[in-house]
Amino acid sequence: MQIGKKDWIFIGLVAIVLLVFFVISGKEKTKKVPLDDQHKPFYDIVQKQGKMEADKGCPACHNEQGGVPFPAKHPVKPKDGPMRCLFCHKLQQTK
Ligand code: HEC
Ligand code: HEC
Question: What is the CATH number of domain 29-88?
Fold first, then answer.
């Protein structure tokens, strides 16, 4: 098959779309869950029981009543209902 002019335009468009996609994903800078002693148990729970299960343990420390407070402009607060922390805060690469 010959690659004609139209094909190149198409390939160019695909390349641009991919580029934009990469730039956007690079801007994804929500803090990851630290890989420290306080959070390590959750890496296990996620592996064995899944993210939904792990999410339940976060408010034990992350709450507004004397725990680790949320930043003022945090998009959601625990009182908004079940919290899907790990939906936004990804785990770090473990190996
Ligand atoms: C045992 C208490 C405890 C539990 C449970 C806990 N955290 Fe934390 N977390 C902390 C403390 C203390 C800090 C602040 C110090 C630090 O960065 O480790 C923190 C910091 C963070 C940060 C900010 C990290 C940064 O780079 O500034 C994120 C995000 C976070 N926790 C997410 C979570 C999520 C998601 C869960 C549930 C899966 C969770 N934590 C469960 C104690 C806890
Ligand atoms: C809808 C997405 C979303 C959800 C759900 C979410 N967060 Fe966040 N969180 C953010 C964003 C955005 C920030 C501010 C940017 C940043 O610093 O990561 C933030 C910031 C934080 C910080 C402060 C990080 C720092 O040191 O600056 C902590 C701690 C934190 N979140 C914990 C949690 C915990 C615990 C849960 C679940 C109870 C949770 N978040 C659920 C989006 C989310």
Answer: 1.10.1130.20
